Amino acid sequence: MRPGLFGRNRGIGGRTRGRMSWKMRLIPLLLFAIYGLYFFVSNQETVPLTGRSQLVDMTHEQEMALGLQSYQEILSQSKVIPEGQVVDLVRTIGRRLATAAADVDPGFEWEFNVIDSPQANAFALPGGKTAVYTGLIPVAENQNGLAVVMGHEIAHAIARHGAERMAHQKLVQMGTIAATVAVGDMDYDTQRMVMGALGVGAQYGVLLPFSRDHESEADYMGLLFVARACFDPTEAPRLWERMGEVSKGKQPAEFMSTHPSHGTRIKQFQEWMPEALALRERHCSTTSQSS
Protein backbone atom coordinates (compact mmCIF):
# COMPACT_ATOMS: atom_id res chain seq x y z
CA MET A 1 0.00 0.00 0.00
CA ARG A 2 1.39 3.39 -0.93
CA PRO A 3 2.10 5.52 2.12
CA GLY A 4 -0.38 8.26 2.63
CA LEU A 5 -3.00 6.90 0.21
CA PHE A 6 -5.35 5.87 2.98
CA GLY A 7 -3.38 7.37 5.85
CA ARG A 8 -2.91 10.98 6.90
CA ASN A 9 -4.28 13.67 4.61
CA ARG A 10 -1.71 15.46 2.55
CA GLY A 11 -1.84 18.87 1.04
CA ILE A 12 -0.06 20.43 -1.89
CA GLY A 13 3.45 19.10 -2.39
CA GLY A 14 2.72 16.17 -0.09
CA ARG A 15 2.90 18.24 3.11
CA THR A 16 0.88 16.89 6.00
CA ARG A 17 -2.09 19.02 6.98
CA GLY A 18 -1.56 19.96 10.58
CA ARG A 19 -2.76 22.64 12.87
CA MET A 20 -2.77 26.25 11.84
CA SER A 21 0.71 27.78 11.94
CA TRP A 22 1.42 30.66 14.28
CA LYS A 23 1.62 32.97 11.26
CA MET A 24 -1.88 31.95 10.19
CA ARG A 25 -3.13 32.52 13.72
CA LEU A 26 -1.83 36.07 13.57
CA ILE A 27 -3.95 36.95 10.52
CA PRO A 28 -7.33 37.37 12.30
CA LEU A 29 -5.60 39.11 15.20
CA LEU A 30 -3.80 41.47 12.81
CA LEU A 31 -7.04 42.24 10.96
CA PHE A 32 -8.73 42.97 14.29
CA ALA A 33 -5.85 45.24 15.32
CA ILE A 34 -6.06 47.21 12.06
CA TYR A 35 -9.84 47.57 12.15
CA GLY A 36 -9.83 48.20 15.90
CA LEU A 37 -7.34 51.04 15.46
CA TYR A 38 -9.45 52.53 12.66
CA PHE A 39 -12.62 52.16 14.75
CA PHE A 40 -10.93 53.82 17.72
CA VAL A 41 -9.35 56.73 15.83
CA SER A 42 -12.40 57.53 13.68
CA ASN A 43 -14.89 57.64 16.58
CA GLN A 44 -13.31 60.05 19.03
CA GLU A 45 -15.34 62.57 21.03
CA THR A 46 -14.41 64.91 23.89
CA VAL A 47 -16.13 64.84 27.27
CA PRO A 48 -17.30 68.29 28.41
CA LEU A 49 -15.62 69.80 31.49
CA THR A 50 -12.97 67.09 31.81
CA GLY A 51 -11.66 67.23 28.22
CA ARG A 52 -11.12 63.48 28.17
CA SER A 53 -11.10 61.78 24.75
CA GLN A 54 -13.68 59.02 24.50
CA LEU A 55 -14.77 56.35 22.03
CA VAL A 56 -18.35 56.88 20.79
CA ASP A 57 -19.66 55.48 17.51
CA MET A 58 -23.26 56.70 17.49
CA THR A 59 -24.82 60.12 16.91
CA HIS A 60 -26.54 62.16 19.60
CA GLU A 61 -29.83 61.53 17.81
CA GLN A 62 -29.38 57.75 17.88
CA GLU A 63 -28.37 57.85 21.51
CA MET A 64 -31.33 60.02 22.51
CA ALA A 65 -33.75 57.75 20.64
CA LEU A 66 -32.42 54.75 22.57
CA GLY A 67 -32.70 56.70 25.82
CA LEU A 68 -36.31 57.65 25.17
CA GLN A 69 -37.24 54.08 24.27
CA SER A 70 -35.62 52.69 27.42
CA TYR A 71 -37.22 55.40 29.58
CA GLN A 72 -40.70 54.68 28.29
CA GLU A 73 -40.21 50.95 28.89
CA ILE A 74 -38.99 51.51 32.46
CA LEU A 75 -41.83 53.88 33.33
CA SER A 76 -44.43 51.54 31.83
CA GLN A 77 -43.18 48.74 34.10
CA SER A 78 -42.86 50.90 37.24
CA LYS A 79 -45.14 52.62 39.72
CA VAL A 80 -44.66 56.28 38.80
CA ILE A 81 -45.79 58.83 41.39
CA PRO A 82 -47.66 61.52 39.42
CA GLU A 83 -47.59 64.35 41.96
CA GLY A 84 -46.80 65.29 45.52
CA GLN A 85 -44.13 66.93 47.66
CA VAL A 86 -41.35 64.53 46.67
CA VAL A 87 -42.18 64.89 42.97
CA ASP A 88 -42.12 68.69 43.26
CA LEU A 89 -38.77 68.54 45.08
CA VAL A 90 -37.19 66.23 42.51
CA ARG A 91 -38.38 68.36 39.60
CA THR A 92 -37.22 71.59 41.22
CA ILE A 93 -33.76 70.14 41.88
CA GLY A 94 -33.66 68.66 38.39
CA ARG A 95 -34.48 71.96 36.70
CA ARG A 96 -31.79 73.78 38.68
CA LEU A 97 -29.19 71.17 37.78
CA ALA A 98 -30.23 71.16 34.12
CA THR A 99 -29.86 74.95 34.04
CA ALA A 100 -26.43 74.67 35.65
CA ALA A 101 -25.41 72.16 32.97
CA ALA A 102 -26.87 74.17 30.08
CA ASP A 103 -23.42 75.16 28.74
CA VAL A 104 -22.53 71.51 28.08
CA ASP A 105 -26.02 70.12 27.43
CA PRO A 106 -26.20 68.75 23.85
CA GLY A 107 -29.86 69.71 23.51
CA PHE A 108 -31.58 67.34 25.93
CA GLU A 109 -35.31 67.57 26.61
CA TRP A 110 -35.21 67.14 30.37
CA GLU A 111 -37.88 65.14 32.16
CA PHE A 112 -37.90 64.21 35.84
CA ASN A 113 -40.06 61.52 37.41
CA VAL A 114 -40.27 59.68 40.72
CA ILE A 115 -40.67 55.89 40.90
CA ASP A 116 -42.09 54.20 43.99
CA SER A 117 -39.41 51.64 44.81
CA PRO A 118 -37.22 50.81 47.83
CA GLN A 119 -34.06 51.14 45.71
CA ALA A 120 -31.74 53.90 46.91
CA ASN A 121 -30.94 54.93 43.38
CA ALA A 122 -31.64 57.23 40.43
CA PHE A 123 -30.78 57.32 36.74
CA ALA A 124 -30.58 59.72 33.80
CA LEU A 125 -30.73 58.42 30.25
CA PRO A 126 -29.53 60.10 27.04
CA GLY A 127 -31.90 62.88 26.13
CA GLY A 128 -32.31 63.96 29.76
CA LYS A 129 -34.86 61.35 30.80
CA THR A 130 -34.35 61.11 34.55
CA ALA A 131 -35.97 59.20 37.41
CA VAL A 132 -35.45 59.02 41.16
CA TYR A 133 -36.51 56.02 43.24
CA THR A 134 -38.27 56.82 46.52
CA GLY A 135 -35.80 54.60 48.39
CA LEU A 136 -33.14 57.24 47.78
CA ILE A 137 -34.98 59.98 49.70
CA PRO A 138 -34.21 58.75 53.26
CA VAL A 139 -30.53 58.19 52.41
CA ALA A 140 -30.18 61.58 50.72
CA GLU A 141 -31.70 63.18 53.85
CA ASN A 142 -31.96 66.66 52.31
CA GLN A 143 -32.12 68.48 48.99
CA ASN A 144 -28.34 68.84 48.83
CA GLY A 145 -27.82 65.09 49.13
CA LEU A 146 -30.50 64.47 46.52
CA ALA A 147 -28.86 67.04 44.23
CA VAL A 148 -25.52 65.20 44.53
CA VAL A 149 -27.04 61.94 43.29
CA MET A 150 -29.08 63.60 40.55
CA GLY A 151 -26.10 65.68 39.44
CA HIS A 152 -24.05 62.50 39.18
CA GLU A 153 -26.69 60.80 37.00
CA ILE A 154 -27.14 63.89 34.81
CA ALA A 155 -23.35 63.93 34.32
CA HIS A 156 -23.45 60.32 33.07
CA ALA A 157 -25.95 61.33 30.39
CA ILE A 158 -24.11 64.48 29.32
CA ALA A 159 -20.75 62.67 29.23
CA ARG A 160 -22.30 59.96 26.99
CA HIS A 161 -21.02 57.18 29.20
CA GLY A 162 -23.69 54.75 28.00
CA ALA A 163 -22.71 55.16 24.35
CA GLU A 164 -19.02 54.90 25.24
CA ARG A 165 -19.64 51.68 27.16
CA MET A 166 -21.44 50.21 24.14
CA ALA A 167 -18.48 51.12 21.90
CA HIS A 168 -16.04 49.44 24.30
CA GLN A 169 -18.19 46.32 24.31
CA LYS A 170 -18.14 46.27 20.50
CA LEU A 171 -14.34 46.33 20.52
CA VAL A 172 -14.20 43.53 23.06
CA GLN A 173 -16.67 41.47 21.00
CA MET A 174 -14.62 41.99 17.83
CA GLY A 175 -11.47 40.95 19.67
CA THR A 176 -13.24 37.87 21.01
CA ILE A 177 -14.32 36.87 17.50
CA ALA A 178 -10.76 37.31 16.19
CA ALA A 179 -9.36 35.22 19.05
CA THR A 180 -11.99 32.53 18.47
CA VAL A 181 -10.89 32.22 14.84
CA ALA A 182 -7.22 32.15 15.84
CA VAL A 183 -7.68 29.23 18.26
CA GLY A 184 -10.41 27.50 16.24
CA ASP A 185 -8.37 24.37 15.45
CA MET A 186 -7.07 23.85 18.98
CA ASP A 187 -8.49 21.15 21.22
CA TYR A 188 -11.53 22.06 23.31
CA ASP A 189 -9.74 22.36 26.65
CA THR A 190 -7.09 24.67 25.21
CA GLN A 191 -9.72 26.81 23.50
CA ARG A 192 -11.66 27.09 26.74
CA MET A 193 -8.54 28.03 28.70
CA VAL A 194 -7.43 30.69 26.19
CA MET A 195 -10.89 32.21 25.73
CA GLY A 196 -11.52 32.13 29.47
CA ALA A 197 -8.28 34.00 30.14
CA LEU A 198 -9.14 36.57 27.48
CA GLY A 199 -12.62 37.01 28.94
CA VAL A 200 -11.26 37.60 32.43
CA GLY A 201 -8.65 39.99 31.05
CA ALA A 202 -11.26 41.99 29.15
CA GLN A 203 -13.57 42.14 32.15
CA TYR A 204 -11.05 43.09 34.82
CA GLY A 205 -8.52 44.85 32.61
CA VAL A 206 -10.80 46.88 30.32
CA LEU A 207 -14.53 46.99 31.07
CA LEU A 208 -14.52 47.32 34.87
CA PRO A 209 -11.72 49.94 35.00
CA PHE A 210 -13.50 52.01 32.36
CA SER A 211 -16.74 51.72 34.34
CA ARG A 212 -15.02 52.97 37.51
CA ASP A 213 -13.48 55.83 35.53
CA HIS A 214 -16.96 56.76 34.28
CA GLU A 215 -18.27 56.82 37.84
CA SER A 216 -15.44 59.06 39.02
CA GLU A 217 -15.91 61.37 36.04
CA ALA A 218 -19.65 61.60 36.75
CA ASP A 219 -18.88 62.33 40.42
CA TYR A 220 -16.61 65.20 39.40
CA MET A 221 -18.91 66.69 36.77
CA GLY A 222 -21.96 66.22 38.99
CA LEU A 223 -20.24 68.00 41.87
CA LEU A 224 -19.63 71.01 39.62
CA PHE A 225 -23.28 71.00 38.50
CA VAL A 226 -24.34 70.89 42.16
CA ALA A 227 -22.10 73.83 43.01
CA ARG A 228 -23.17 75.91 40.03
CA ALA A 229 -26.84 75.20 40.81
CA CYS A 230 -26.15 76.73 44.25
CA PHE A 231 -26.62 73.58 46.28
CA ASP A 232 -24.09 72.71 48.98
CA PRO A 233 -21.35 70.48 47.47
CA THR A 234 -19.95 69.65 50.91
CA GLU A 235 -22.89 67.28 51.31
CA ALA A 236 -21.29 64.90 48.76
CA PRO A 237 -18.80 63.15 51.09
CA ARG A 238 -21.41 62.99 53.84
CA LEU A 239 -23.86 61.38 51.41
CA TRP A 240 -21.35 58.69 50.50
CA GLU A 241 -20.65 58.02 54.15
CA ARG A 242 -24.38 57.31 54.52
CA MET A 243 -24.33 55.20 51.35
CA GLY A 244 -21.48 53.22 52.87
CA GLU A 245 -23.55 52.53 55.98
CA VAL A 246 -26.49 51.34 53.88
CA SER A 247 -24.34 48.96 51.79
CA LYS A 248 -21.92 47.90 54.54
CA GLY A 249 -20.57 44.44 53.81
CA LYS A 250 -22.31 44.26 50.44
CA GLN A 251 -19.83 46.11 48.22
CA PRO A 252 -17.30 43.87 46.40
CA ALA A 253 -13.58 44.63 46.28
CA GLU A 254 -12.99 47.71 44.16
CA PHE A 255 -11.12 45.89 41.37
CA MET A 256 -14.14 43.58 40.95
CA SER A 257 -16.70 46.37 40.97
CA THR A 258 -18.20 48.70 38.38
CA HIS A 259 -17.97 51.51 40.94
CA PRO A 260 -15.13 52.95 43.03
CA SER A 261 -15.29 52.11 46.73
CA HIS A 262 -17.13 54.55 48.97
CA GLY A 263 -13.80 55.46 50.59
CA THR A 264 -12.27 56.29 47.20
CA ARG A 265 -15.25 58.45 46.28
CA ILE A 266 -15.14 60.36 49.56
CA LYS A 267 -11.41 61.02 49.11
CA GLN A 268 -11.97 62.26 45.55
CA PHE A 269 -14.79 64.57 46.61
CA GLN A 270 -12.53 66.10 49.24
CA GLU A 271 -9.85 66.70 46.59
CA TRP A 272 -12.33 68.37 44.23
CA MET A 273 -14.10 70.39 46.93
CA PRO A 274 -12.01 73.61 46.70
CA GLU A 275 -12.84 73.88 42.98
CA ALA A 276 -16.53 73.24 43.62
CA LEU A 277 -16.72 75.79 46.43
CA ALA A 278 -14.94 78.41 44.32
CA LEU A 279 -17.40 77.78 41.48
CA ARG A 280 -20.33 78.17 43.85
CA GLU A 281 -18.87 81.38 45.20
CA ARG A 282 -18.62 82.83 41.68
CA HIS A 283 -22.10 81.86 40.52
CA CYS A 284 -24.29 82.11 43.61
CA SER A 285 -25.39 85.08 45.64
CA THR A 286 -25.37 85.01 49.44
CA THR A 287 -29.12 84.37 49.42
CA SER A 288 -28.97 81.44 47.02
CA GLN A 289 -26.03 79.91 48.89
CA SER A 290 -28.28 79.38 51.88
CA SER A 291 -30.27 76.79 49.85
Give your account of this protein's structure.
- This is M48 family metallopeptidase.
- InterPro entries: Mito/Outer_Membr_Metalloprot (IPR051156), Peptidase_M48 (IPR001915).
- GO terms for molecular function: metal ion binding; metalloendopeptidase activity.
- Belongs to the peptidase M48 family.
- The protein is α+β, with helices and mostly antiparallel strands.
- It starts with 21 loop residues before the first helix and ends in an 8-residue tail after the last helix.
- A hairpin with a 6-residue loop joins strand 1 (44-46) and strand 2.
- It has a four-stranded mixed β-sheet, with helices on both faces.
- Helices cover 59% and strands 8% of the residues.
- Report the radius of gyration as a whole number of Å: 25 Å
- The total strand number stands at 6
Helical segment count: 9
- Strand composition percent: 5-15%
- Biggest sheet details: 4 strands, mixed
What's the assembly state of these chains?
Answer: single chain
Alpha carbon gap, first and last residue: 96 Å
Strand arrangement, largest sheet?
3-4-6-5
* Percent in helix: 55-70%
Catalogue the unreliable spans. Answer: 1-17
- Based on Cα principal axes, name the global outline: elongated
User: Would you list the SSEs in sequence order as H and E?
Assistant: HEEHEHEEEHHHHHH
Structural class: alpha+beta
Overall mean pLDDT: 83
